[in-house]
């Protein structure tokens, strides 16, 4: 059940199941055909699909009580992840139909990308030190961004290009625990996800900032600058 299939089904449903009525207005030589109930029916349909998907995921992912566990049970976490992905796609569809912020998968002011929500502080009109930025993210159930592949790097770079007056962006990379050993905020080494290195490394520069071209630079953690938070959607 892909988002494209659901979108096509929604269009067919509206065309074949939602009734329309003709309303004649006095003084007009034409009969205006007014389609009623489209928005309500669309919301009802997508909401119903969401509830059905949740029920299907619970029934298909939960093991039966009266049968022993076997090797297929190892696939349950993967099935649950797939269900979460489909539910996220349905939430995006519902938000697109209703334009209601309550249906969004990310908080107001955050950007959604590939199953994660990102917050960029450019709009706050304030800069913070690296530790202050990390505390801000933690207070919003997130962490300073950990960049895991080139596609994510390109996404963040695209956002940065929209704010050229900011020279850099704090990310979740530091060598405060051991000088010269750069670690992401999730506890992994800098080379764990992709080949990267930090320029200008020095004893007094223990926090990394991201600059144009996807380059990471070592900087004084007490410098003030914008930052990026990241959390699961």
From TrEMBL:
UniProt xrefs under Gene3D superfamilies: Mannose-Binding Protein A, subunit A (3.10.100.10)
Cellular component, GO annotation: membrane
TM region positions: 34-59
Primary location: membrane
Protein name (Swiss-Prot/TrEMBL): Natural killer cells antigen CD94-like
Top-level taxonomy: Eukaryota, Metazoa, Chordata, Craniata, Vertebrata
Boundaries of every C-type lectin domain copy: 113-230
PANTHER family: CD209 ANTIGEN-LIKE PROTEIN C-LIKE, KILLER CELL LECTIN-LIKE RECEPTOR SUBFAMILY F MEMBER 2
InterPro entries per UniProt: C-type_lectin-like (IPR001304), C-type_lectin-like/link_sf (IPR016186), C-type_Lectin_Receptor_IMM (IPR051379), CTDL_fold (IPR016187), NKR-like_CTLD (IPR033992)
Subcellular location: Membrane
Organism in which the protein naturally occurs: Stegastes partitus (bicolor damselfish)
Record flagged with keyword Transmembrane: yes
Membrane association type: Single-pass membrane protein
Keyword Transmembrane helix applies: yes
PROSITE patterns: C_TYPE_LECTIN_2
